[in-house]
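Supplementary Note 2. Why include the ligand at all?

Several targets in our set were suspected to adopt different conformations when bound, so apo predictions alone were not considered sufficient. For every target with a known small-molecule partner we therefore ran a joint prediction. The input for flavin mononucleotide is given below.
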Amino acid sequence: MTIGSDRLQRRMARGAAFLGSEVAILGGAMSWVSERNLVSAISNAGGFGVIACGAMTPALLDAEIAATQAMTDKPFGVNLITMHPDLVELIAVCTRHKVGHVVLAGGLPPKGSLEAIKAGGAKVICFAPTLALAKKLIRSGVDALVIEGMEAGGHIGPVSTSVLAQEMLPEIAELVPVFVAGGIGRGEAIAGYLDMGAAGVQLGTRFVCGTESIAHANFKKAFIRASARDAIASVQLDARLPVIPVRALKNAAGELFSAKQREVAGHLDEGRVAMGEAQLQIEHYWAGALRRAVVDGDVEHGSVMAGQSVGMVTKEEPVADIIAELMAQAAAALEARAA
Ligand SMILES: Cc1cc2nc3c(=O)[nH]c(=O)nc-3n(C[C@H](O)[C@H](O)[C@H](O)COP(=O)(O)O)c2cc1C
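The joint prediction is reproduced in token form.
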């Protein structure tokens, strides 16, 4: 073992022990992408795969967990969205399958959900958008946190990963394991966040073009072609019509979304539509759009969620190669620290 890989192993030890994996790299849950194939590939390669439950019913999640367990004997997690109407039942499904880690995404966990997950024997990982909320989540008993910057693909907050890491790691990294996400494309960045106190990292965008990922060939092609500046956040055009920012590749759907916002705002001005109905039209615009891109391959009219690290995705390759490359880069960076 080189000095660099020894240093890397020591810096990842806490995160890896927490996850029960070989390396402290989580494959961030990606709706429609993070299913049995990609999740088991990440876990089999020594990382920690996470199933994206998204809008799955409890029966579908049940089948997906069982299928994943059939493809790997390594640990993996399940990502549940807090707004899901069947959250209680989905937690019960995870408990029945003895899933070791549940990641709660999409806002603060509703009352009783942390307790239900922990009572079932699983560890709870939450997203912490601010330092104050991180401390509150730790007080309420979460086992680990993810801090995710606006460079990430999918739904994003307003602050960059580098600022979140500086603000939050010195205050909370000793209390619970913290995994840094958003914009990580190479191992040097992983080494940097580990040095700052992170227990590990979470990557999404880099895994989309894994050979094992079932994302449509058009979706993967769009990733391979894109550069960082193509992965843009959706913009709210009217104060009355809230838009939750999502980072995705520029395409026709994004332009049509701007047109839709202007049209609905115009209807509001003219009193042709009630506020509630107008807001719903905006909220529902993207319904089914990620599936359309990932599963159907319509990368012009679907949502091609991608982070800024998409520029570092240059080919389709086995997940094990992606993880090995990240680890080698991180180890080399840590080796160079001594010089
Ligand atoms: C296509 C896509 C779909 C995603 N879907 C979800 C999701 O369903 N739930 C979730 O918590 N995060 C989702 N994310 C965020 C990832 O889990 C991960 O945190 C993020 O990709 C990390 O940043 P990176 O893209 O810069 O690596 C998604 C990201 C992408 C690119």
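Residues 28-31, 33, 52, 54, 79, 105, 148, 151-154, 181-184, 202-206, 305-307, 309 surround flavin mononucleotide (CB under 6 Å). The mean pLDDT is 97. Comparable summaries for the other entries are listed in the accompanying table.
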